[in-house]
Design a protein that fits this description.
Distance between the termini: 17 Å
Radius of gyration: 20 Å
Helix content: 40-55%
Number of helices: 8
Largest sheet: 5 strands, mixed
Bound molecules: adenosine-5'-diphosphate, magnesium ion
Number of strands: 7
Strand order of the largest sheet: 2-4-5-7-6
Length: 238
């Protein structure tokens, strides 16, 4: 359907290499973290050295997140596109976060104008986009709140809004949130939105946002719609 530039094929080799590199990096990190935890436990609360072990552990967690995000970045589209039902995808992800939302006192709702709206693409990558957005929403609402996802059809586009009533984005940060490594979080990687934008654009889509500090944020996603008739026309054998 879409011309795939040959450099993307090279990237998929890099993706495989990155996957094994990530494994090789994670194992030693995990073992370092384990021993540090033992050392940390052996210090009393008022021991100055406990502060150092805490910092080391939190830096290891940051490295782990970084490595995970870099892997996603290196992985490119492997396999063919499929029809992804947006609402199904979003419900699956909400299910994944159910416990965490309950614990954090967050209410989740999905409002779907067209339950069967489909987009054409790689399910795993599209999942990653919504995981990133919902994760960010959760992190912006430490004291509870609402996450609302609204899906609708506008002409030949599927529009998905991910709304939260969290702390919002400051005007200074607004310019930078899609840049790699920009983060305002202690343990953030700053790769989530960079990655999401890359995936969305790879799907011929668009991502943008509106935010008010102290009130909340809405992320908008637009993808070309793939409806029933198109599907049949493209795959007459199905
Ligand atoms: P990370 O989550 O690792 O910080 P992201 O790329 O996902 O990296 O996000 C970059 C930054 O954008 C965040 O650190 C945060 O400042 C801001 N941000 C993203 N989504 C939201 C949101 N829903 N509410 C408030 N701030 C957000
Ligand atoms: Mg994030």
């Amino acid at each position: 359907l879409r011309e795939r530039p040959s450099h993307l094929e090279n990237l998929s080799v890099i993706g495989e290499l990155a996957a094994s590199a990530v494994h090789e990096i994670k194992n030693p990190l995990f073992s370092i973290r384990g021993f540090l935890q033992i050392i940390d436990n052996s210090f009393s609360e008022d021991d100055k050295r406990k502060e150092y072990t805490r910092i080391m552990i939190s830096e290891i967690d940051r490295l782990e997140g970084l490595v995970r995000d870099l892997l996603m970045l290196a992985k490119t589209r492997i396999g063919s596109d499929e029809s992804v039902t947006v609402c199904e995808l979003i419900r699956d992800i909400a299910e994944l976060y159910k416990n965490r939302m309950e614990m954090q006192n967050i209410k989740f709702s999905l409002r779907a104008e067209d339950e069967s709206a489909c987009i054409l693409g790689n399910r795993e990558q599209l999942e990653q986009v919504f995981i990133n957005l919902i994760q960010n929403a959760l992190e912006a609402m430490e004291n509870g709140g609402n996450i609302e996802v609204v899906t609708s059809r506008k002409n030949e586009k599927v529009v998905i809004e991910v709304r939260d009533d969290g702390k919002g984005i400051s005007p200074e940060a607004e310019k930078k949130i899609f840049s790699p490594f920009f983060t305002t979080k202690k343990n953030g990687t700053g790769l989530g939105l960079f990655l999401s934008k890359k995936i969305v654009e790879d799907h011929r889509g668009r991502i943008y946002f509106q935010s008010t500090e102290g009130k909340g944020t809405v992320f908008f996603l637009e993808f070309p719609v793939q409806n029933g008739e198109d599907r049949q026309a493209e795959n007459p054998s199905e």
